[in-house]
Specification:
Strand content: under 5%
Largest sheet: none
Helix content: over 70%
Distance between the termini: 70 Å
Structural class: mainly alpha
Number of helices: 10
Number of strands: 0
Shape: elongated
Order of helices and strands: HHHHHHHHHH
Radius of gyration: 19 Å
């Protein structure tokens, strides 16, 4: 096999490993899933699995990236939702809430996210750049949507859009930890309640 074919095969195997790992961790939970068990599920030895990743931390970081990729593909706003700017902005927030709601179906991945997010504060951690990238991505997603809704009077404009985007992002991440402690917590419902409280039109209906 030539070098290009070998590389393509390696990329395909890496994707297979990540897809398998997503399923196993979502189903079994982080604490009940070792690297050896992930390797077994992928049909590899532990050493064979880590051939595709430099460390366990890099493997876990790649799993989180894969989770975001899968969630975006599954819950991105539908093309038909793109109409008036305000409606398109509402669709962006609805898509964000769908992903938050979906998190309740994959507790093992929520455990992984919460576990890695603490260690990733260290700049040398393999997941550090992932969380910075995620922060930038969510800002680029939420700030324009909130700005549009503020311009149309659907969200209060007394707080800068960038600040509100940070609040919504921080709330979504923090709720994952709270939900691990209390699985009865409605994560998406809590964020939706905040957005409702920020809608000045609610005042006119009370």
């Amino acid at each position: 096999m030539n070098r290009r074919g070998s590389y393509a095969k390696g990329v395909a195997k890496r994707e297979e490993i990540l897809t398998t790992a997503l399923d196993v961790i979502a189903r079994e939970g982080l604490r009940r899933t070792s690297v050896r068990e992930l390797a077994d599920a992928a049909g590899l030895s532990q050493a064979g699995l880590l051939h595709y990743f430099d460390s366990k931390e890099e493997l876990y970081t790649a799993i989180l990236r894969k989770r975001d990729e899968v969630d975006h593909a599954a819950h991105a706003p539908r093309p038909e939702s793109a109409g008036a700017p305000g409606d398109a902005a509402e669709a962006v927030l609805a898509s964000f809430l769908e992903i938050v709601r979906h998190n309740a179906d994959v507790p093992g991945l929520v455990q992984l996210f919460a576990h890695i997010s603490v260690d990733a504060a260290a700049p040398e951690h393999p997941a550090h750049e992932f969380f910075l990238d995620r922060q930038r991505y969510l800002g680029e997603l939420l700030i324009p949507a909130i700005t549009t809704l503020q311009a149309e009077g659907r969200i209060v404009d007394t707080i800068p859009a960038a600040t509100l985007a940070t609040v919504v992002h921080a709330l979504a991440d923090g709720l994952q930890t709270h939900w691990l402690l209390d699985p009865n917590l409605d994560m998406a419902g809590t964020i939706d309640a905040l957005l409702g409280a920020l809608d000045p039109r609610q005042e006119t209906t009370r």
